[in-house]
Amino acid sequence: MSKMPEDFLWGGALAAHQFEGGWNQAGKGPSVVDVMTAGAHGVPREITETIEDDKFYPNHEAIDFYHNYKEDIALFGEMGLKCLRTSIGWSRIFPKGDEAEPNEEGLQFYDNVFDELLKHGIEPVITLSHFEMPLHLAREYGGFRSRKVVDFFAKFSEVCFNRYKNKVKYWMTFNEINNKMDVNNPLFLWTNSGVVVEKGENAKEVMYQTGHHELLASALAVSKGREINPEFEMGAMVSHVPIYPYSSNPEDVMLAEESMRQRYFFPDVQVRGYYPTYALKEFEREGYTIKFEDGDEEILKNGKVDYLGFSYYMSTTVKSDVENNNTGDIVNGGLPNGVENPYIKSSDWGWAIDPTGLRYTLNRLYDRYQIPLFIVENGFGAVDTLEEDGSIHDPQRIEYLTSHIEALEKAVTYDGVDLMGYTPWGIIDIVSFTTGEMKKRYGMIYVDRDNEGNGSMKRSKKASFDWYKHVIQTNGEEL
Ligand code: BG6
Prior knowledge:
Blueprint: E1 9-13, H1 16-19, H2 65-79, E2 83-87, H3 90-93, H4 104-119, E3 123-129, H5 135-141, H6 148-164, E4 170-174, H7 186-193, H8 203-228, E5 233-239, E6 243-245, H9 250-259, H10 261-272, H11 277-286, H12 296-302, E7 307-311, E8 316-318, E9 338-339, H13 355-369, E10 373-377, H14 395-413, E11 419-422, E12 445-447, E13 459-461, H15 463-473
Parallel strand pairs: 1-2, 1-11, 2-3, 3-4, 4-5, 5-7, 6-8, 7-10, 10-11
Antiparallel strand pairs: 8-9, 12-13
The structure holds 6-O-phosphono-beta-D-glucopyranose (BG6).
The site of 6-O-phosphono-beta-D-glucopyranose has 14 residues, from loops.
GO molecular function: 6-phospho-beta-glucosidase activity
Enzyme class: hydrolase
EC number: 3.2.1.86
């Protein structure tokens, strides 16, 4: 197989709320995730009104990168990461979200982190909003239901661009902006947008209005970023779970095609700069009123992204003669016609393991958009065991990642997809987003901490650490 590009960004991915800890340090305000308790596979996380003393909130301390960032970044450097994707905790910079001035101590923290990364030759790849909206904006304004929050986000992003313009080149606006298309699971609208759907409301209509505001916020940030530093690479970030037809029955094929709009709606707007006709038809058909103001079309047109980042963990499948099979299961993606794919095995958390789906995804997205792509999340969440001698063997993770790297290399070297980089998720063990557990581990670095918050926080290298280091050293030639 021919070689990967020399400047290919091999890296790792994280999100502030899942690893930083220090949730109330140095002026940081509570975020929407700080009121989420721990759940488990099949047990949803509870979203509490305020922080309650007798409840456990796993993100508060997470893995305490806040106090260990130098040691952790040294390990990332030793692994040879060329980039680290992480986010800026919005409520560290604007504790309530609507202040006139940012919190200097919060800004300083990210200066320290970015300086440390650059010292180790690691390029920061930054998401502005990865489920970290200040709680105050959610409670007082209804999150992105309110157009005012568009302005607060625009201000937050401008502050970040100005402050870090010489340290950060790669930006993404909203993490998995499209995951809230699954309105059956309240987790997504809450974490993405700070929104709770009230009784009697049409959840889909609320989601589209909220989404419109986020699309404007994203486009405004893209335009502002370019103005502040024309060298910036401004990206969108979506969750991509391809939806396969169960069979060659044309009804299954058409159903899969239509269902894929759930995945494509947000990136269609962010890449093309206008609403797709299938969405306008849906609004008309369903009677949704989505408030557009004068100038919105212009904002969207001017805020088209340079590249598309996406997460890829699994695929899913739909069958036309099955109905209301939606169990509310996260894995099913809220699809009423979702069924198991008989050709694909799943992880212990029910996530389908499908490396070919990654090559398929890269081709579909590249054909559709013709802009560079960036795989900013992929990985295998599993239980790891710390052996008595301190070693951790994780062959399943290595196998998963090997097969996915083979698939992405084929997409680049055989299909000709323009791919900027690959950042496996949770390069160090962190708190799971969907379940709040620690035991669902993705890392190549083990962290001694359990689901209840016990443990020494000691870091240890797993077998996958040296394996991935070698992959990077050989630019993906030797897996
Ligand atoms: C993505 C999110 O949905 O999936 C991450 O962007 C998340 O924040 C990742 O952690 C994996 O999900 P989980 O629930 O296994 O942590």
